[in-house]
Amino acid sequence: MRHRIAEPERGRIVASTSQKTAEFDFVVVANRLPVDSVTGPDGSQMWRLSPGGLVTALEPVMQGVDGAWIGWPGSANGDLEPFEHDGIKMEPVTLSELDVEYYYEGFSNDTLWPLYHDVIAQPTYHREWWDAYREVNQRFADRAISIAAEGATVWVHDYQLQLVPGILREARPDLTIGFFNHIPFPAYGLFAQLPWRKQIVRGLLGADVIGFQRSADASNFSRAVRRLFGFETKGTRIWVPHDASQDDVAGSPPSRKGLPVRRVVARHFPISIDSAAYARLAQKPSVIARAKQIREDLGNPKTIMLGVDRLDYTKGIRHRLKAYGELLREGRIDVESTTLIQVASPSRERVGTYIALRDQIERTVGRINGDYGTIGHSAVVYMHHGYPREEMVALYLASDVMLVTSLRDGMNLVAKEYVAVRADNDGILILSEFTGAADDLKQALLINPHDIDGVKNTMIRAIEMSTAERRRRMRALRRRVLENDVAKWSEAFLEELEHNSTARSGSENGGAQ
Ligand code: GDG
After folding, report:
1. Shortest-distance atom of ligand 1 to CA 414
2. Based on CB atoms within 10 Å of each CB, which residue in 251, 273, 406, 440 is the most buried?
3. Beta pairing, strands 22-32 & 68-72
């Protein structure tokens, strides 16, 4: 991709942001910039690429193109100039304290997140939060409007920015606009709760391609479009009128009335990881030595089970602990031969539901350790901090059983990372049916995390599984994860986007022929 210095005046660009410094042919818009500000040993501030699902997925993609990434740097206030890090051009968007509270912690993480994860926790609906969501979406869109070159491709990410495609479509019809939703899209019966459901769907329909993790998510979205607007849909295609005044459920769809329509594609593109990079890390002698050290530090138990999650109620950490605690109580496992390591990386620490969840989890861990731990052996080794990626890989290598017990999860990259590093074809993945990953990783031991007895029996089955069966399963899983990596994911998405760009192909009259 080319990166050009802007001409002083490009009259056709409609932007409320007046400054224009550079224009890019490829722009990523995501809530967060892929960097965290850290303090160096000498006290100086510097940037470091940050962990997390989206960053993990897009980092290799961004390093291959000359584009820009628009996002929030992660702390409130403070205007930052655009800068470059690790070959990625960063365009920081400023959020005030109130924006963080209303748009991010409020509407994104206390309204949309629980609603889209099947109402595992009760969503909160506040009109002030919605107003902030609209304003902040406008701010992100304005930045994209001002830095995207004529005919550029803009790829918008995730539930925090669902209004951005619609704003871009209005202001810059020359752009090719993609949107990818990293979390599930709920069934209409749940989505319908949202007081601003029409605005959200309208915002998303501004994109040429709307990507989801699972085909079920894409179907849920198409159904919402039919129910709310009556637009014609067929398979992965949706026909949307150019004129927003045609947003009407009454009568036949606009496409059938011969009105000019755009074709939008809504389909699944299951995200993955940079599998080869993980596999390479796992070959490093220092990582292998660290994995051995971890086992030794734990007293070389026969079985190490591992959970790695952001501390989030969608991840089913409590269900996993409940099952594990009951196995100890019933004497089906003991602390000398089995250890559970639970990494719960800090997340959304000012949102009430997360504060309560942390308390619950830590009480449960304390109780299990109090009841069953010995001087030499903890039942659960619990860590509430983030680790460097190499340490994560060492943990994966050190563990015999990986526990992914999400109650609902868009994909779950941890499951794929565990598989990618196991070049020894050993290790067992216990995987919740309610993850996007389960659609693909059929050779895992699939569980329903709500069925505690089922989870317990599966844990025992994993502990007792023969070497031959472990290897057979892991070999099959590895084939899937190594073949379908993150590069394939982004290529598939961008190819579909190129193919279905309204800016490049114009509109249609009428819909599905
Ligand atoms: C969302 C969706 C979807 C975690 N702790 C540390 C650390 N991590 C890394 C993991 C993994 C990533 O963060 C977590 O990704 P997940 O996919 O498991 O979950 P979410 O954060 O909820 O991500 C999810 C994803 O977006 C991508 O579309 O799969 O469904 O919810 O890569 O390894 N990494 C390091 N230290 C930690 O302490 N280095």
Report:
1. 18
2. 406
3. parallel
Dist. CA 422 → ligand 1 center (Å): 18
Strands (E), 146-236: 148-157, 176-180, 209-212, 232-234
Q: What is each CA distance from 55 to 58, 112, 164, 486, 497, in whole angstroms? A: 5, 20, 20, 11, 21
Cα of 429 to ligand 1 centre, how many Å?
Answer: 16
224-236 confidence digits (pLDDT tens): 999 999 999 999 9
Q: Whose CA is nearest to atom 14 of ligand 1?
A: 53
- CA–CA separation, 440 vs 421, rounded Å? 17
Give the number of other CB atoms < 10 A from CB of residue 498: 14
Could you report the per-residue pLDDT of 294-348, keeping only the tens digit for each? 999 999 999 999 999 999 999 999 999 999 999 999 999 999 999 999 999 988 8
Binding-site residues, ligand 1, Cβ < 6 A: 51-54, 56-57, 182-183, 271, 308, 310, 345, 386-389, 392, 409-414, 417
Q: Are strands 68-72 and 209-212 parallel, antiparallel or unpaired?
A: unpaired
Digit-coded pLDDT (tens) for 168-204: 999 999 999 999 999 999 999 999 999 999 999 999 9
CB 412 within 8 A of CB 429: no
Strands, sheet with 380-383, edge to edge from the N-terminal-most edge strand:
380-383, 338-345, 303-310, 401-404, 428-432, 445-447
Nearest CA to ligand 1 atom 38: 386
Distance CA(133)–CA(136), nearest Å, equals 5
DSSP sequence for 210-266: EEESSHHHHHHHHHHHHHHH--EEETTEEEEESSGGG---SSS-GGGGT-EEEEEEE
pLDDT tens by residue, 372-409: 999 999 999 999 998 889 999 999 999 999 999 999 99
Ligand 1 atom nearest residue 312's Cα: 22
Residues in the chain: 513
